[in-house]
Amino acid sequence: MLAKRLRIGAGTIVAVSAIVLAASVFGVSGWRAEANLAEGTPPPMPVAAHRVSYEDNALIQERFPGVVSARRQSALGFQQGGLIEDVLVDVGDVVTAGQALARLDTRTLQAQIAAADAQTREAAAQTALARDTQERQRVLLERGHISQQRFDEVVTSADAAQARQNAAAASADAMRVQLDLTMIEAPYEGVITARLSDEGAIASPGAPILEIVETGAREVRIGLPASIIGSLVDGQHYSFEGESGDFSAVFRSNTGLMDRQTRTVAAVFDIPADQSVIIGEIARLVVETPVGTSGFWVPTDALSESRRGLWSVFILQPEQNDYRLEARVVEAIRVEADRVFVRGAVADGEYILAAGLQRVTTGQLVALQAGGEAE
């Protein structure tokens, strides 16, 4: 019996010595943790906290997507049909305004022009003869050798000859216009994006042969709410996030018409030539808009779903040297990627649990982890 008591006393002495040693090494907090363990209760869980800071004029960044496009894009074809004699460009070629791109076989048309020119010369000769006759008849009329009626008939004949000459010349000019239309020229500076026919093919009137996209002028069109449209200023630069990098563009105009399905108004922004943007990429307009109510930002991980579409946060209520968790209901006003603007029964300057909600419950005792407040 005595030996048993000695063994118990020796164990007690060892335990007390261990506690004293731990306190000397880890400090007061470590001593409390050992004391809690000795009492059979776990130590307060270390957590990260976020300090509540109310804002009355908070701004939120909103992003509206659109597509970068060329200001002008055209499908080019021949106005009249015919045999394609040559296609002078290929996909990817950069062309200048007025550059020849393709042409038709013009042998038949040139022969028709030659015939029309011959008819014009013939009509001109007949007109000249008619005018000479008119002049001679005028002299005879003055001398009284012919009647006025006869002279009027001569004048009419000369005018008719002149009309036939004019018609022949107009026909020749029309054919020359057709000759010009057998050549496709670049309407503006751009790049060839498609070649749809080759030499030897028969082109139908108006059928696309080439496609060209303007390279000198790019734009982005974005559907925006009416409230955002009203805040845009003509000629002002606005920030965009693109797939190839951030860039700026100048607001040019808006359509002034609201789309019935999307309830947005199309806005057009011009992209300066010095911006490195690829036609066809997605671009997002970045606009700061006011939240419109007083509230505070919290990390997304600080929210847990509550009832009736509301959310809740855990408040850290001071208790001696630690904190006890208390749930408070809040309303989410605006949501961003990693934070949420909320309002609710939380006072300015209070601390809320920043993360790890799945590891705690209401009323649980916690302690601030190393580093204290979380940003």
Our estimate of the beta-strand percent is 35-45%
Counting DSSP H or I runs of 4 or more residues, the number of helices is: 4
User: Which structural class fits the helix and strand makeup?
Assistant: alpha+beta
Order of helices and strands: HEEEEEEHHEEEEEHEEEEEEEEEEE
Q: Name the helicity range.
A: 25-40%
* Rg value: 45 Å
The CATH topology assignment of the largest domain is conserved putative lor/sdh protein from methanococcus maripaludis s2 fold
CATH class designation of the largest domain? Mainly Beta
Termini gap: 61 Å
Overall geometric form: rod-shaped
What ranges have pLDDT less than 50 throughout 5 or more consecutive residues?
Answer: 1-33
Largest sheet: 8 strands, mixed
In the CATH hierarchy, what is the architecture of the largest domain at level 2?
Answer: Beta Barrel
The count of strands amounts to 22
Give the rounded overall mean pLDDT: 85
In total, the number of domains comes to 4
Write out key terms for the chains shown.
single chain, 375 residues, alpha+beta, conserved putative lor/sdh protein from methanococcus maripaludis s2 fold, Elongation Factor Tu (Ef-tu), domain 3, eight-stranded mixed β-sheet, six-stranded antiparallel β-barrel, rod-shaped, disordered N terminus
